[in-house]
Amino acid sequence: MLKPCRYCYRLMLVAWSVITLATTASAAEPSLSIEGNLRFQGQGNETLNIQGVVEADILRPVLEAFHQRYPQITLHYHDASRGERPQPATVPPNVDLLMSSAMAQQYQLANAGYAQPLGSGVINPDWPESARWRDELIGLTHEPLVMVYRRELADIAPPPEDHAGLLALLNQKNTALTGRVATYDPARSPTGFMAVAQDVARSTEAWALFDAMGEADTQLLDSTADMLEGLIEGRYLIGYNLMGSYARRAVQDHPDLAMQVPTDYALALQRLALIPMNAPHPEMARRFLTFITSRQGQQIMTTRTPLGSPLLAFEGATSPDDSLEPIQLTPGLLALIDPLKREALLDRWQTIFDTRSIAAPNIVEGTVE
Amino acid sequence: MVSAASLHRRLLGGLSLLLLLTCTLLLLQSWYSAQRSADRAYDRLLASAAQVMSDHVSWRNDRLWFDVPASALNMLAPHGDERVFYALIDREGHLVSGNAALVALIQDLPATGSFQTSSATFNGLSLRVGALGARLTGWHNRAPYALLVAHTLEARHAMTWQLFRDSSLRLAGIVALAVAGLLMTLRLALRPLKQLRRRLKARTAHDLSPIHVRVPRELEELLAALNALLARQRQVRIHEQRFIGDASHQLRTPLAGIAASAELALRSQDSAHWHQALQEIQAGTHRATRLAEQLLSLTRLHSPEAPLTRQPVALATLARETLVRFLPVADKNGIDLGLAEPCPELSVAGNRWQLEEALSNLIDNALRYARSRVTVGIDAANSVIHVEDDGPGINNGEQDDVLRPFHRCQEQGPGSGLGLAIADGVARAHGGTIVMHHLPGGGFMIGLHLPGEMT
Predict the structure, then answer these.
(1) Strand duo A181-184 + A219-221: pairing
(2) Would B170 be classed as within a structural domain?
(3) What is the domain-level CATH number for residue A224?
(4) Residues of chain A found within 8 Å of residue B74, distances taken between Cβ atoms
(5) Does some domain include residue B236?
(6) Domain at B77, CATH number
(7) Which of A149, A364, B393, B415 sits most deeply, having the most CB atoms within 10 A of its CB?
């Protein structure tokens, strides 16, 4: 397991340096986007490297606002969400701020001591305690996992509103839905793994749903973006466990899509940020965190990106939902990614989905690594 | 005068020091016991978490299987922000599952059924590690394994602080009470002293009556000494009063004689009467002058402002020179005045003027009462300079009284009654005494015993 990891790691490094070279070549441009990467050239010689699993375009308004506020800082944003690989047990080098919705992995890194303290006075003091751990981890966003379906699904059956409804739909309309359901591939996407593991940890009934999904030859994808792409193009009818932030934006742009927050329970993920111990510019990362957690930063995030704010979520700015079940920052997260447990879960997953064709070519298409 | 540290301060200082020492020891003790309590409590938590985890260890697919329960991991972080580590180790010591290589932190794998805790450092983190030894409970497979759990020490530190703070607060309360009690007790205990002081301060200079106040046993002695001093002062005062009275009385006698003689002479027209009156007046004046001189000597002797300056005084020379001054008087009275031979050379440390005065008085006194002979002698062996005469001497019963001023054996005697008192004063000033006794062959000896001779 180690060797391929190291390999992809090296690949990533090479890709990173290529990008860095490419971007520095055209440093005159104020901002530049290459394959999920963003670069804002600063006037000074200060630098901030952010690695996240949010698409660069989604986060762009926040990054732009930060760049306007601190024009002297050269800002790199690298989106690692496309073609996500299981994270290695250490943090990548040369990253000042690591953001990810793979909460268990982030928690594991911080738990093992790979994160440095955020420092006092960095985070907005109003920031909810439930979105902080040890002054090392901070949940920057608050977003539910949702279902998205195409409106033409109503022609087949009434669209599902909760998990039981989805299961019933899959069992009843198996043939009509075969190959037209999409969800995360837990083997390839840590965020997807988090979603599946939490579903199972919450109730073993989830396996019935996954069995039914296997029966329906559900397509396993790497990212919410891929699922949304397929849904928009009409390849899929239903997507399960999509990141609410992306889905909300896609549904706004595409009226033939509808988003359903499960009414029984909707897991709410936090995108956790940490400053790695070996970050080259931790002070810049702190400045960014101060900016993004400020009321102004959260205002920009909630109005100009689809991301949900933990600060405003508890103030009723966005409608609070009873079915939302925020995933807590507790050591219990470690149980989700226990090697044996992960293996067992993936084994069982694999036996359900072993009939499906492995990795359609279009999935790897956008990968930057 | 530099005063010694106050009793109050001394007592307070000593007791405070003791209190401080006790407090320090108690604080240390409570810190260690708080630490022990916290460790005991959270070690038990580690054990429980490991027990819960061991319920989820099984044998599946020909290997150890572990379904780590999230609740057990949450248990390991009672404070919420502890870092949590766990590891399942098989009998060979290989990691089956877990999030840290904890096996490197323990010495030996724990025996089956045992739980042991230890402190360790892992990647720079201070950890408390619990190791549970267990075996599978299946019918066919009873493979042993070890479950290691560890957490960082935040909860322990918090609990230690909490316990320590509580016991420190209790201690602070006790100390505050003790200090208040101490101050009150000190004030109460030292109150009799204050009262005594106040009574003494309130007294007038003439009030020499004994002090009557109830005092604790420790002060009784002081009060007794004080009262004794006051009694002596009273005695001295009485003596002084009597002395002044006596002196006035003595001075009045010659002055009254002078006045009477002058009055008689004034009434007479006879020049022979005048001459006799003038002679009587002269004699009276002499007596008055002599009395005044002696009074002056006595006052000087008793004056505390004039300390005695001592020099070596050769007694033989002194005797000879003093004797010579009295020869004319002795001749007039037909008394044989002389120096006893052999006259040893004895030298004492003393004041020459005083010694001469004392000796003069002794000779003067002897000349008044002697019938025919007065001899001055020196007894080197006993360090005594003495005067012998063949008069009647002083009765044994009166020998103490004659040393008091104005005491005379015969009420109408020729002397002033101060001579022996002066001699006694000089002897005392020199640390000596007046010695006197009747001589075996008739006659009387009186002498100055002067210790501290210088040979």
Answers:
(1) parallel
(2) no
(3) 3.40.190.10
(4) 330-332
(5) yes
(6) 3.30.450
(7) A149
Chain A interface with B: residues with Cβ < 8 Å: 108, 111-113, 133-134, 201, 330-336, 338-341, 344
How far apart CA A266 and CA A270 sit, in angstroms, is 13
Find, in chain A, the residue whose alpha carbon is nearest to that of B81.
A134
Checking if the pLDDT of A79 tops 70, the result is yes
The total number of structural domains in chain A stands at: 2
CB B130 within 8 A of CB B116: yes
Task: At B304, give phi and psi (nearest 5°).
Answer: -75, -15
Whether residue A273 lies inside any domain: the answer is yes
What pLDDT band is residue A28 in, cutting at 50, 70 and 90? very low
User: Could you read off the pLDDT of B320-335 as tens digits, one per residue?
Assistant: 999 898 998 889 888 9
Domain that holds residue A86: 2-142+269-326
Distance CA A113, CA A128 (A): 23
The residue with tokens 């006259």 is B343
Chain B 115-144, residues with CB within 8 Å of chain A CB atoms: 123-125
Across chain B, what does the average pLDDT equal?
A: 86
Tens digits of per-residue pLDDT, B19-40?
A: 999 999 999 999 999 999 999 9
Q: Give the CATH number, domain containing residue B270.
A: 1.10.287.130
Label residue A207 by pLDDT band (50, 70, 90).
Answer: very high
B258-293: burial string, b at 16+ Cβ within 10 Å, e else? beebeeebeeeeeeeebeebeebbeebeebbebbee
Number of domains in chain B: 3
A21 and A84 fall within a common domain: yes
Query: In this structure, are A212 and A95 located in the same domain?
Result: no
User: What range does the domain containing B94 cover?
Assistant: 7-161
3-state helix vs strand vs coil in chain A, percent to 5: 45, 20, 35
Instruction: Give a yes or no: residue A292 inside a domain.
Output: yes
Contacts of B86 in chain A (CB under 8 A): 334
pLDDT of residue B451: 84
Q: Residue A122 above 60 pLDDT? A: yes
